[in-house]
């Protein structure tokens, strides 16, 4: 079974898709056969790699899932594209428990050719995120360094605990990642200290800085590591990759 990392946070704008995309690219560059799954109806992970969203999402289509994997500009990285179809978004986001189980089985049964799989979730704790968590071996939660960083975490962690508590679950809490980090701001230091004091060792040592290159890279269909390899953001995602790979 591959290592399946779910990138999730119910709060939007925390760097979730940015982290999923750049971490997937970094892991692929490290030599793992990697799949990035775009479950967010905004499809930013798909367009951020320079590809086009599918007309129908593979998880609700009748075709075998493998037929929907797309090659990217990196030899070791494949993509399961997102879809902006309102019908598919509604079907995925409002899945019943039985349908969520079916989707999780469908997803997990098609991943054998990969070493690592990263799932980019929508900003919610709805059925779609729960389906992704049920398919994953671990969850990585990005948190923006701002006043409301801790807001909603209790609910997200409760959902994670519910999934972990299922008898057939292999989900573990992989870690918390501090994003949009500005060391010149006192608020950033306060959030950093508060999160590390509360969560301890599950918080990654690596932090992702505010860096224009990170925001610009998706418009060029690349990771920040390829777009601006000497930038602070690129170095941070390489360091995060090393830290994630060490936490096996």
From TrEMBL:
Respond yes or no to whether keyword Zinc-finger is given for this record.
no
Looking at the record, the residues that make up the AAA domain are 3-172
Stored Pfam families = AAA_31 (PF13614)
The UniProt keywords, alphabetically, are: Hydrolase
Name a GO molecular-function annotation: hydrolase activity
Q: What is its EC number?
A: 3.6.-.-
Q: Tell me what this protein is called.
A: Soj-like protein
State the organism of origin: Lacipirellula limnantheis
């Amino acid at each position: 079974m591959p290592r399946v990392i779910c990138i999730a946070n119910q709060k939007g704008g925390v760097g979730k898709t940015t982290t999923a995309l750049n971490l997937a690219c970094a892991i692929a560059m490290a030599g793992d056969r990697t799949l990035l799954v775009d479950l967010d109806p905004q499809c930013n992970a798909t367009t951020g790699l320079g590809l086009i969203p599918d007309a129908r999402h593979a998880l609700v289509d009748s075709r075998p899932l493998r037929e929907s994997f797309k090659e990217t500009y990196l030899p070791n990285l494949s993509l399961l594209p997102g879809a902006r179809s309102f019908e598919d978004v509604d079907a995925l986001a409002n899945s019943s428990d039985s349908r969520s189980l079916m989707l999780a089985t469908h997803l997990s049964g098609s991943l054998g050719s990969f070493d690592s799989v990263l799932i980019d979730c929508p900003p919610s704790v709805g059925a779609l995120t729960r389906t992704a968590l049920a398919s994953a071996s671990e969850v990585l939660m990005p948190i923006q360094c701002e006043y409301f960083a801790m807001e909603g975490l209790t609910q997200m962690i409760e959902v994670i605990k519910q999934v972990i508590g299922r008898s057939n679950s292999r989900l573990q809490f992989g870690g918390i990642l501090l994003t949009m980090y500005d060391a010149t701001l006192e608020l950033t230091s306060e959030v950093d200290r508060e999160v590390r004091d509360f969560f301890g060792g599950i918080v990654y040592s690596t932090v992702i800085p505010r860096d224009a290159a990170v925001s610009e890279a998706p418009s060029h269909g690349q990771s920040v590591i390829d777009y601006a390899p000497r930038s602070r953001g690129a170095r941070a995602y390489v360091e995060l990759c090393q830290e994630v790979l060490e936490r096996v």
